Amino acid sequence: MIDLAIIGGGPAGLSAGLYATRGGLKNVVMFEMGMPGGQITGSSEMENYPGVSTVMDGMSFMAPWQEQCFRFGLKHEMKNVARVSKNSDESFSIFLDDGGEIRAKAVIVCTGSEPRRAGFKGENEFFGRGVSTCATCDGFFYKNKEVAVLGGGDTALEEAIYLANIVSKVYLIHRRDGFRAAPITVEKAKKNEKIEFITNAVVDEVYGDQSGVTGVKVKFKNGDIRDLKVPGIFTFVGLNVRNSVIKDENGNFICETTQSGQIKVDLKMQTSLKGLYAAGDIRQDAPKQVVSAAGDGAVAALSAMSYIESLK
Ligand code: FAD
Ligand code: NAP
């Protein structure tokens, strides 16, 4: 049996791993299905982490985090966790999607969130062939071409600014004329001559051929349609929490969640199930920032260590 299982290797999971191993826990395993780093590794620019004054891309920003954790003994298992359950002897079972089962004294869930689909016609058909949710990954394919960006939050505006450095023009499509993004970011985007704002409009359809997307039909609130002949569209319409690991075999949550599926925690990141903690974007009222996810991870690790100590 391992001491602590951490599920997810983004800022929350890595910080939990750092605090748990450096705090003396010997057998701590972080189950991360991909490379550690989390969703910020898909960001083109990270500039609001306290104490880090150099602006860098998310991948470069996260690289030292894992090195630091591994130095203190955190183990990374590149596995997808299917679900977690609590046993009658108070231990937890971590069920992997490859059929494996690992037992742990305590668990911290740091599974974060993933990009939401917008729901327009052609989105699924052309996903990966002109429809993308990652500007850092796919922006270069559109060098000196025109692209569309959908959304009015921080991600859409920031990534539109990033794309404007690569492409010839960005059409920023948003369903209202007010924005969720920080005013400073909206101002920056509005000053960028390569970005054209198309507001009070939604994407009606993305169409194309065998080679991929060839255009985007935009529908305005008054019913007008505008046809943009672009080979690519980046959609940034928010995030869904990844909470499948806390569902039992019948699809019921093993701990309390909010209506939108975020995990309810107290100030110690303790869920309603003793020994099970949650940290980062997955938890209720998360500010969805790297700094707060990291803070949550540290708090959850310290709480889990006290809990494990209390079992002795
Ligand atoms: P995540 O980063 O989502 O990490 C969760 C990890 O869990 C993932 O690596 C995933 O692979 C893994 N995982 C999920 N389910 C399983 C499973 N079942 N089994 C195994 N592994 C699993 N925040 C800022 O502070 N500043 C910014 O400038 C900023 N820019 C952003 C730009 C973009 C494009 C995006 C998308 C987000 C940005 N954010 C920014 C928000 C920030 O990235 C998140 O708040 C933060 O990454 C949350 O960390 P987390 O560890 O909770 O979750
Ligand atoms: P978000 O804040 O939820 O914004 C999503 C945007 O997409 C909203 O403008 C929304 O419109 C629009 N939208 C939603 N569904 C749509 C649909 N079906 N069709 C068209 N438009 C749709 O998501 P986000 O920008 O990804 O940000 C997520 C979180 O991460 C936020 O808390 C954000 O602050 C944080 N983040 C922070 C930074 C940073 O600190 N620099 C950077 C990136 C992200 P409405 O506004 O009309 O609802």
Automatic annotation (TrEMBL):
Cofactor entry: FAD
Protein's name according to its UniProt entry: Thioredoxin reductase
Organism annotation: Campylobacter corcagiensis
Protein EC: 1.8.1.9
GO cellular component annotations of the record: cytoplasm
UniProt catalytic activity: [thioredoxin]-dithiol + NADP(+) = [thioredoxin]-disulfide + NADPH + H(+)
Subunit organization: Homodimer.
Gene this protein is translated from: trxB
GO MF annotation list: thioredoxin-disulfide reductase (NADPH) activity
Family designation: Belongs to the class-II pyridine nucleotide-disulfide oxidoreductase family.
Residue ranges constituting the FAD/NAD(P)-binding domain according to the UniProt record: 3-297
